[in-house]
What does this fold into?
Amino acid sequence: MSNFDPVLDHFLFREYDFETYHCAHFARDVWLYLTDEDLGEYFGCLLLPRAIVSVKNLKKRKFIRLRRLETPCIVQAKMKDNVVHVGVGLNNSVIHLNSRLASYVDLNIFLRDVLRVSYYATSHSRERFAAIMGQRDS
It folds into this structure.
């Protein structure tokens, strides 16, 4: 992961907890770091205790649907076990948290366990990301 941003490495030590910290919390934290934009209002009830991540719960009208992974974007996937999963797309990879571990993997590896995937951004995510990364480089 350090070939992208070494500071993101600290996200890989986050631990999953079904009740208090799952993939939606993790994606929110990574997105906030990358864009300074809090997705709490967009994710709605996904962040409540014991929330089950559901396509219906994600307030898609707040997002712009993308045709492919862009940096950064929200990656929403329906997994082969019918669980809906959320991560953040960066440089043709996905950083995400599942019940076993947090990881940053190539998109093709991530897609091995996926039935369906969608990519989303907010109206300002690209500009915010570029500005924040520019500040961190200087």
